[in-house]
Structure formats: C-alpha cells, structure tokens
Design a protein that fits this description.
6% of the residues lie in helices and 33% in strands. The chain is mostly beta strands.
Length: 191
C-alpha cells in the first residue's frame, strides 16, 4: 500500500486507508505496522512534512485493532504498542498550531509537536481525542468520547471532557444492591 513502509505478517489493512507523507526521508522513519494487526476502512494517517520535524513517524505494534473513520497524526511522532484497541472515529493529534499572535492568522503560525505514546493493552473508546505529547499508560481504558489532555496512568479508566480518572482496572466497585440502596436512602430519605 502506498506510503506504508512495512506491514507485518497476517496483518489486514483496508484498501481505502489514506497515508499522507511529504518529503519522505531515508532515515527509517515513516509508517510501519506490526504483525496480526487490523486497520478498518476510512482511516487517515498523516505524517506530514518529514523535514519539518525529526520525530515525524508512525509505529503500530502487533495485534493492534483500529476501527473505522479515525485520524492519526504522526507529525510529532506516534507510537502504538501491542494489543491496543482503538474505537471508530478516534482522533490522535501529535501536532497543533500556535495561536498567541493575534495579528497573524492561526493557520500561518508555527506548528507545535509532541510525541504520543500508547502503551501495551490500551483500549481507546470510539470518538475519543488524544492531544499532542500524551502518554497513555499500559492497560488503560479511555471511555468513548473522552478528550485526553494529560498523561494517563497505567490501568486507569479515564472518561469525560477533559478526561479524568474514575477508577483503575482490577478495582472492585461497590455497585451491589446494598450500596445502591444505601445511596438511595442517603439521597431521598432524610430522617
């Protein structure tokens, strides 16, 4: 597929994914996909101008599943490690725009870059947005529609806008009948 440097064994890529690279370099940067990974239709991968940033790169690990309709910026560097699940319509943005100069249109101001690293065994829910420079720790879960504006700890479950940690994977939750009844009484029965 045009624009992809290597694809590992048993990986399946939809024919309509798009890869955008300008000034392709010969320094082993580009887009590489590991083994046993699957990328569904209508995904766009943008590395942009490889001369503009020496970290421009996309590395996708093994056993990664990327659902349809996503936008993945590798302009500042994007590393997706093994066993990651990414929901439909997710935006991962490793580049942005400076905007502080009020006299210059934003699109004429400099770009900003920050490498995004998604560690092993992460699940990113549909329609989430991951901003530049973020690391999502191993085993974390990002709820659908979450906007991630800061690093995520390993095994954290993060939801909302902006994303906040609500619990950690493996924690027992107190949602049994007794806890729900206790909560109902506290909220509705003033004695």
């Amino acid at each position: 597929m045009d624009g992809i440097d290597s694809v590992g064994e048993n990986s399946t890529l939809s024919e309509d994914i798009e890869v955008r690279i300008i000034n392709k370099s010969d320094d082993h940067r580009g887009m590489r996909i590991g083994s046993n990974s699957m990328i569904y239709p209508r995904n766009r991968f943008v590395i942009g101008d490889m001369n503009a940033n020496s970290r421009a790169d996309i590395k996708i690990g093994n056993f990664v599943l990327i659902n349809s309709g996503g936008y993945f910026s590798g302009e500042g560097g994007l590393i997706i490690k093994d066993y990651v699940l990414i929901g439909a319509n997710t935006c991962i943005l490793s580049a942005g725009h400076k905007y502080h100069d009020r006299l210059t249109p934003i699109q004429q101001q400099e770009l900003t870059y920050g490498t995004i690293t998604i560690e092993r065994d992460v699940w990113i829910g549909a329609s989430s947005v991951i901003l530049e420079g973020i690391t999502i720790g191993e085993g974390a879960v990002i709820g659908a529609g979450t906007i991630v504006t800061k690093d995520v700890e390993p095994y954290a479950v993060v939801v909302g806008n902006p994303g906040r940690t609500i619990k950690y994977r493996g924690e027992k939750t107190k949602t049994g009948l007794f806890q729900r009844l206790k909560h109902y009484i506290a909220m509705h029965c003033r004695i």
